[in-house]
Amino acid sequence: MIAVEDEVKIVSGLKIDIIIAYVQRYKFGHEIDFVPPITGIHLAAITPKKHLVRVFHQQLESLDFNSNADIIAISFFSGFAEMAYKLAGIFRAKGKMVVAGGPHVTFCQEEALIHFDSIVTGEAENVWQQLLDDVINGKPERIYNGTPCDMLSLPTPRYDLLPSAFLIKKVIQATRGCPFLCSFCTVPSLNPGFRFRPVEHVIRDASYDNFRFWWQKKVVWFWDDNLTISRPYIKVLLKKMIPLKKWWLTQASMDIANDPELLELMKESGCIGVFLGIESFGKESLRDAHKGQNKAENYSNAINEIHKMGIAVMAGFIAGFDHDSYEDISSMAEKLMEIGVDVPFLSIMTPFNGTPIYSKLSSEGRIISDRGWNYYNGYNVAFKPAKLSEKDLLLAHRMLWKKAFSFKYSFKRIFRSAITLRPGAFLLSFFMNSFYCYKKLRKNHPADACNL
Fold first, then answer.
1. How far is the C-alpha of 246 from the C-alpha of 439, rounded, in Å?
2. CA 96, CA 140: separation in Å to the nearest integer?
3. Are 183 and 350 in contact (CB under 8 A)?
4. Rounded to 10 degrees, what is the CA torsion of 216, 157, 226, 290?
5. Distance CA 398, CA 412 (A)
6. Greatest C-alpha distance within the chain
7. Average pLDDT value for the chain
8. What are the φ and ψ backbone dihedral angles of 428, each rounded to 5 degrees?
9. Which of 220, 293, 304, 360 is the most buried if burial means most Cβ atoms within 10 Å?
10. DSSP labels, 78-139
């Protein structure tokens, strides 16, 4: 016989707090951030409506440690694992059920089970409701193994649950997966295959305008690993995007520069910025990264083709591949300017569990075992480099950071953007480079993990 209070819980549903864990990666924190990860607001959206959900982004808002939630759900990647474990301990001591998901949980299950009551591996869509039903029935499993989602009936993310400190709020996902097998990336194993949502569903989400500020209504950030892989799909989507008159950004491969029709559609549909995973200028380092499709001699021409459409180029570069020397890394700032990158993203090679580079370094005994998960945040060294010491790799990256984001180079990028980019793309470049100048004024730079 079901107790009265259990009957009430079944009717009213559960109270769920979703926390996106975070550890400060800079000397000082951020009062604002550009865009939220889609994880929390997507998980809230796929939660059945009978449940009451709140979402907390630890980076920008205080957590409710006196929460009356039935479930605390924590999502995180490896660099924030130590914080997630700490939070789990606090909430479990208060008698809360704590569950977790994300890439770190997927690839470090035994460790995660020490800290959480239940974990969700892989993609959550096909198991999240089952977990909630099991909790209501008092029989939750320890592990819920998510399988690849078909992407056919996903709801609009819960933008209403985002804090005001995010400048851009309309983050959506049209596709999932990536066919490339980069050595440092977990996507092929975490999100296998390549799938896409019905175009009309993507347009529905892109049309969502219940935001306070005009730019939050105007800008769409595609949270896709590689939006342009399926040319037939992306071209149909972009044609449907044109009447919306939005500005949008995404991540793509450099081969878009070889497709004039695609570039023209990107321009007409309002693309203001594209992120390219360029990674390195060295042939051997690109081979280390499994990025054979990238050719350093083509970088400048490819970026120029994208600039002809007035689109800003954001580009990721990674320091610390086996063939990287101190000089290769520290000289990268000048090369970034030469090829025309508008907004650089600079990180240290990080051997995340579940990646080919982790398997390689682990088999060679080059993972530094006494360095905790805080070192796995993209700005610190968690392995033994091949051509330089751990300390020199860190110093080379810090030198690169200071040079690339100096006032001189930041102002040069802004000036060049004013000449080459369309208004929306210029605003993107201006804002992000100005933000780096602001960091420079505050002497705000990546923090050493030992000082976090």
1. 29
2. 13
3. no
4. 110
5. 20
6. 74
7. 93
8. -60, -50
9. 220
10. GGGHHHHHHHHHHHHHTT-EEEEESHHHHH-HHHHHHH-SEEEES-STTTHHHHHHHHHTT-
In the predicted structure, residue 5 carries a pLDDT above the cut 50: no
Task: For strands 97-101 and 52-57, give the pairing.
Answer: unpaired
Angle at which helix 332-339 crosses helix 299-308, to 10 degrees, equals 40
Residue with tokens 């945040």: 377
Tokens of 396: 């080379």
Give 126-184 as a DSSP string: TTHHHHHHHHHTT---SEEE------SSPPPP-GGGS-TTBS---EE-SEE--S---TT
| Architecture, CATH, for domain 167-451 | Alpha-Beta Horseshoe (3.80)
Domain spans in the chain, listed from the N-terminal domain onward: 4-145, 167-451
Residue 58: partners with Cβ closer than 8 Å, 6 or more residues away: 19, 20, 21, 22, 83
H or E stretch including 271?
strand 271-279
Q: How confident is the model at residue 34 (pLDDT cuts 50, 70, 90)?
A: confident
Residues 6+ apart with CB under 8 A from 446: 25, 26, 27, 379, 380, 397, 398, 401
Q: Which helix (H) or strand (E) holds 285?
A: helix 283-288
Distances in whole angstroms, Cα of residue 416 to Cα of each of 79, 137, 225, 340, 421: 35, 61, 28, 9, 8
Distance CA 347, CA 378 (A): 5
What dotted CATH number matches 4-145?
3.40.50.280
Strand partners, 120: 101, 144
Phi, psi of 118 (to 5 degrees): -145, 155
Least confidently predicted of 40-44, 116-120, 436-440: 436-440
Q: Measured between alpha carbons, how far is 381 from 348 in angstroms, rounded to an integer?
A: 7
The average pLDDT across 50-57 equals 97
Phi then psi dihedrals of residue 381, to 5 deg: -110, 120
| Phi, psi angle pair for 144, to nearest 5° | -120, 110
Q: What percent of the chain has pLDDT over 90?
A: 87
Letter for the amino acid at 132? L
What contacts 20, CB < 8 A, 6 or more positions away?
36, 37, 39, 40, 55, 56, 57, 58, 59, 75, 76
